[in-house]
Structures are given as structure tokens and as C-alpha cells.
Design goal:
Number of strands: 0
Number of helices: 11
Distance between the termini: 27 Å
Number of domains: 1
Helix content: 55-70%
Strand content: under 5%
Low-confidence stretches: 92-113, 190-206, 208-213
CATH architecture: Orthogonal Bundle
CATH topology: Rna Polymerase Sigma Factor, Chain: A
Radius of gyration: 18 Å
Structural class: mainly alpha
Length: about 210
């Protein structure tokens, strides 16, 4: 049985209510779902909660999947909606204090790497995630999906439900804001994002080998 036929069979089983089939279906996406949620969460535990909430929604919505797009694209669209909606609902709450280094990143390697280098890398990752969380949500989503998760322009456009030109514009603006944040500039003004959404631009892609389909 070809891989795509196996996938379709697994999806069909899960749509019929098989929890085991669903677990097998989404198991390879769990790290990516959690990583995406992390860009919209204040802490690792919050990211876990968001990821769990998103997967529950995927399970409940699975019967609506009709193979009109790649399963991965459909799954990310559901996850994206849940995570972004949850982040919006929490936006009015008081910001929590800065998170400590995540345990999986703060743990120092046990091999030849000097402890200070391992700690420096963990701190740099933490600084990057902190900066990502400060981006306006439409830029944050595009940057995480494309630069972190490695989706193509077409896939990001399908997940977000926007034209490819909008994806490129959001990526370009998001990367600029992210560079400013990492360089110590002030946090971005969310109102500024409204002026750029829907415009097209080339965007400097870290996926130079990829092209639009």
C-alpha cells in the first residue's frame, strides 16, 4: 500500500472514531504543534495547554476533512485558528513575569560542549522566543510557519487563508521587526501592522531553494 493510501486509510479510521488511529495520525506533528503554540504562549506549560486544546479541536473537526488539501495543511489551519484565538482572548490579561529558561533548553549537555557555551545557546534561544512573542500575531504566524517550521509560501498561504503576496509581505515585515527586537529596539507597534497586511512584497526567504508551486 502506498504511503498516501496508508495515510488516507488512517484518516478514515480516525474519522470513524478510532482514538488509536488519531494518535498515530498526529504523533509526528506533536513537536511542531507545541513549537507553534509556544510562539503564542507565556510559558512552556501554557504552550502545552494550547497545543492540547488545538489537538482536541483537530480531533473534533476531523470528520470535516475532505482531502481537498494536504492533511498537514488542514491540521495547521485548525491549530493556527485555535492558538491565535486563545492568544487573543488572553491579550487583555496582565502579562506574566518573564519565564525562566525552559527545562528542555536549560539542561546543560553532558558531552564535550563547555557548560558556558551550552548556557549561552539556551539563553539565545530564549531571547529569540521572547522576541517572537512580541511580534503582531499575523507576522508572528508567518515567521513561525515559514522560518521555524519550514512550510512553503503556498502552504502558509493555505493555512492562513491569504494570498501568497500577503505571506511574503508579512514575512518581510516580521523579519524586520524581529531583527529590531533582537537588536534591542523598542517593541513593535501593533497598529503599524495594519498598514502592511494585504500588500505584496518579495520578502527575503531563508528557503532560497524553494519556489512557489
Amino acid at each position: 500500500m502506498a504511503e498516501n493510501e496508508e495515510l488516507r486509510a488512517l484518516i478514515a479510521e480516525a474519522q470513524d472514531g478510532s482514538v488509536r488511529a488519531f494518535e498515530l495520525l498526529v504523533s509526528s506533528y506533536l513537536p511542531q504543534v507545541r513549537r507553534f503554540a509556544r510562539a503564542f504562549a507565556r510559558s512552556d506549560s501554557d504552550a502545552d495547554d494550547l497545543a492540547q486544546e488545538a489537538l482536541v479541536k483537530v480531533y473534533k473537526s476531523l470528520r470535516s476533512y475532505r482531502f481537498q488539501s494536504a492533511f498537514k495543511t488542514w491540521l495547521y489551519a485548525v491549530v493556527r485558528n485555535v492558538v491565535v484565538d486563545a492568544a487573543r482572548s488572553r491579550a487583555g490579561r496582565e502579562r506574566s513575569q518573564e519565564d525562566p529558561l525552559p527545562t528542555d533548553h536549560a539542561r546543560l549537555p553532558s558531552t564535550a560542549e563547555p557548560p558556558d557555551e551550552g548556557l549561552a545557546r539556551a539563553q539565545e534561544r530564549q531571547r529569540l522566543w521572547k522576541a517572537l512573542r512580541q511580534l503582531p500575531e499575523e507576522f508572528r504566524t508567518a515567521v513561525v510557519l515559514f522560518d521555524v517550521e519550514g512550510h512553503t509560501y503556498d502552504e502558509v498561504a493555505a493555512i492562513e487563508g491569504v494570498p501568497i503576496g500577503t505571506v511574503k509581505s508579512r514575512l518581510s515585515r516580521g523579519r524586520t521587526l524581529l531583527r529590531d527586537l533582537l537588536a534591542g529596539e523598542r517593541a513593535p507597534d501593533p497598529a503599524a501592522s495594519e498598514a502592511t497586511v494585504g500588500t505584496s512584497g518579495p520578502g527575503v526567504s531563508s528557503h532560497g531553494r524553494r519556489s512557489e508551486k
